[in-house]
Records
---
Amino acid sequence: MNVTRRGDAASKTMSRMNLDELHTKLIAAARADAPADRVPYAFEKRVSALLASRVAPHALDAWVTGLWRAAVSCVGVAALCGMLAVITSASSAASSDDLVQNLDSTLLASVDQTDQAQ
Amino acid sequence: MACRSSIDFPGISGKLPPMEPTEAELIAAVLKGDAASFEPLVQKYSPRVFATARRYARRESEVDDIAQEVWLKAFEKLGSFRGEAPFEHWLMRMTVRTCYDILRGHQRNREATFTDLSEPENDWLERFAAAPESAGDNEDAAKLLIGRVMEKLSPQARLVITLLEIEDRSVKEIAELTGWSVPLVKVRAFRARAEMKKILAKMGTEKYL
């Protein structure tokens, strides 16, 4: 098979082929071939059914979202209360230590004085 | 569904037939939660949605999926419809953008070979190469060939060629439909034509070499 001869013929054909004109012809062909606008039977019913099936979970979604928000705020409030409890218990522990010391020194003051006198 | 009831007029016997709700009334009803009011809109505009989807879909089953997706999106985003432009324009923007997304999804499946041209397609190309006027643009082979070429274009190029050259829309219209700026549409149109010319050259080369 003579590849060179075929290649030459091909390049001649290609050079003859006007790409701009080919473009114009093919675009004209596409314009002439307008797509059909037919709609499948009861398409609107199908869309409505799809929408209805989507709307129901949306109502449930609203509940789920609400419950999640409530749960998060509950956890927040619980954490805040916990922190407050820890802080107040720490401060009250410190003040109770002072109270014990004061009580000790008051009760034992007379004993201390007696010891010092002796 | 929001629907005007029949009205009694003094001096006129009988009742007037109930008037069809307007588009604005239907949209308002849907926004208030009456999903059934969406059905007349689907019925009215589906032919346009289907015709547009058929320009970009690969198979008829895909056309159904595109149209369905367009309507579901339209329902979800109906709140963003401000009513300044006709509902049809808003819907067509959504349709074109959905089709573009579908084209981008197909991008990986594009193959740039023309080795499997059918006999009529080969014949049409040969006739065109011999004498361009002998190859009619209303022949089935030409329609098949442009279909093949369009499938090989990048999504952007295909969208621009379809809107600008096949549907004969203005640059401004394309900018509104696609959401691209006017200069961007012009740049993409220039690139799309170049890309198409390259594909046509490749088709010719593969046929004759």
---
Amino acid sequence: MAQMTTATRLTGLRAAPGFRQRLDIPRRVVFLAAVSMVAIVVLLMGFIAWQGVQLFVKDGVGLGAIVSPTWNPLADGGPEFGFLPFITATVCVTGVALLISTPLSVGLALFLSEVAPNWAKAIVQPSLEIFVGIPSVVWGWLGLTVLVPFLASSFGGQIVISLPVVGTVFSAPGFLTGFSWLAGSLVLSIMVLPTITSVSYDAFRAVPQEIRTGSLALGTTRWQTIRHLLIPSALSGVLTAVVLGMTRAAGEALAVQMVIGNSPTMPAAITQPLTTLTSQITLDMGNTVFGEPWQDALWTMSLLLLVISISSVVLVRVINKRRMGS
Amino acid sequence: MINGIRRLSVLAVAATVVLSACSSSATASPAAPAATDTAAASAMSTTAPSAGGTVNCVTGSITTAGSTALQPLIQDAAAAYDAACSGATITVNGGGSGTGLSQVVAGSVQIGASDVLANTKLATPDADTLVDHVVCRQGWIVVTNPDVTGVTNLTTQQNIDIWTGTDTNWKQVGGPDMPIVLIFRPQSSGTRATFKKLVLGGATEASGGQTLTEDSNGAVTTAVTKTNGAVSVIGFSYYNDPANKPLLNGLQLDGVDATIANVGSGTYKLAADGNLYTKGAASGLTAAFLDFMMGPQVQGTIIPKDSYGPVVH
């Protein structure tokens, strides 16, 4: 609307009879699209929230009970719905995935934005787009067929990483099966790589060209420009990228479920099987009955995932607001 | 404007193609309505000859959902019914025993398939509205990775020791020196509930540590074939699949071979009825299809082919 008033030619047209009516139809269509999108989101959140609180309201499970480390819906003394193993596993698996993926993705984004000659960009960018398009089931299947047996056969014994002077820095029992926290994190790190790369790339491209040329004119090397100017200026964009990657990783169900082993235990070693929130939901949803406490517990987990996703949206907004402010 | 309308109509045609392609069901039927209503009351009823008996043909459309262990049987039976009769659409969905029971109670499907009895999953008022139709016997087999050599039989007590975590190495039951990797179905699974009841005598299974959980017969089979020292429980139909059998080591239970014959004679104890539930008494196409499931073609031909056992009277 605002743009139209600036164009005098359009102002003239508006006076012509019938124009307003013709203009109205597209306006209504796009308005309807916007309204239905908001309506879907609101209905969805309302439904998940309603189902998610049933565990506390209808089934009388205390809020404290869900942070217990015991998940045993068939326990002899009544069901125990402790979500702590799933919550910590989601955090741990996502965390390690980001630790692996972030340096790779940011490095790749810097390469694309600052270093790559055009012909290299012409290869790397389409490859990234293909990466995005690969369905998660394919990543999971690859992990199941290649990664899991590889981990089991290559790292069967006790895994110890020792450094001179410092001594042992890492020690874990070896992989018995290959289905593990690490397998889940590795699959996820590949899946979030394109997300973090493309958002970081946009952040680096958004840094004005004058900063680069000015910096180079002062005699700095390309690395010094990147280190002291580009990374600080693009930091909030890179953080946004990492948060978006985190959301993707925490919400991924299928690929993780295929390689993680689905054992409802507290994370202790990177070589052990775990269960995340998403994988537990997919495991149990088909065999539980709508309205029973067990399924209500799964809805509560969905609500938790929704809260995680809303928090990350808020986080991204806060980060971006700060960027705009500075 | 005309150009816009033309584009819009192209879009509409594309959408129609997509929609009609997606709404085809397990048993393809010309111009099948998406509705899952039985439309039974006004349905036309005819009889048609088929391989081994006459089939009571009723037109209409019904949907089944539930147990994935029973799904191969229902799918083949539905295809055979469709081959014998025209005008009937039987859509077969999986989803798990719990899904089958809750959807049939809710009235969103006409038949809910379950490995376990309805009253073990549903509250009494809901379970009482359902009518059970036992259509087959189904058996499960304890399988290991083929690298567990020298183990061909486990007794009930050995199974209890293994699955509760008392025995953790195959050498304790006469196998190689290799850790036992337990691969469970989810606690909510009908297969797991049946195994726990019939073999473990209700004992609490080991959990955590290096135990794995996989959510379908297919996923369990893949995990067992890929994991050294793995043991799990799968349905006969999956074990006898020629693609799986060479990759698995199937075990006897208390010295009894896991065969349909032994399920039928009652000597192999890891077996249960396959239950198809209807809400209230079945009518129309639902009743005709359930009759067909009990008829000679399904009981005599399809059930043995898919590694199920005929109903024990």
